[in-house]
């Protein structure tokens, strides 16, 4: 899906790591939400509340998922999942455009 219709957008940006990662929250009529964002090259660590599906629209990064011993390369057109209440790390190689879906 390249476009969302009938949604509301929260105007205030979500900014993390001094602006290295930014996103906007998109809310759907059924109550679900996603964020659309950009990650600058760098190293970042996140903690999830809900399960997350990270769809990489464009860019190149490595992700270290919870309980994993090896980093996995993820490029535009690919995705990865992170369980709820988990920590994961990413190493962003190039400017990365992403869509994060929250699964409750």
UniProtKB/TrEMBL annotation:
GO terms for cellular component: cytosol. It holds the Pfam family Ppnp. The keyword Transferase applies. Its EC number is 2.4.2.1, 2.4.2.2. It catalyses: thymidine + phosphate = 2-deoxy-alpha-D-ribose 1-phosphate + thymine; cytidine + phosphate = cytosine + alpha-D-ribose 1-phosphate; adenosine + phosphate = alpha-D-ribose 1-phosphate + adenine; uridine + phosphate = alpha-D-ribose 1-phosphate + uracil. It comes from the Bacteria. One of its GO terms (molecular function) is thymidine phosphorylase activity. The keyword Lipoprotein does not apply. It is an enzyme of class 2 (transferase). InterPro entries: Ppnp, RmlC-like_jellyroll, RmlC_Cupin_sf. Keywords: Glycosyltransferase, Transferase. Catalyzes the phosphorolysis of diverse nucleosides, yielding D-ribose 1-phosphate and the respective free bases. Can use uridine, adenosine, guanosine, cytidine, thymidine, inosine and xanthosine as substrates. Also catalyzes the reverse reactions. Belongs to the nucleoside phosphorylase PpnP family. This is Pyrimidine/purine nucleoside phosphorylase. It comes from Thiocapsa rosea.
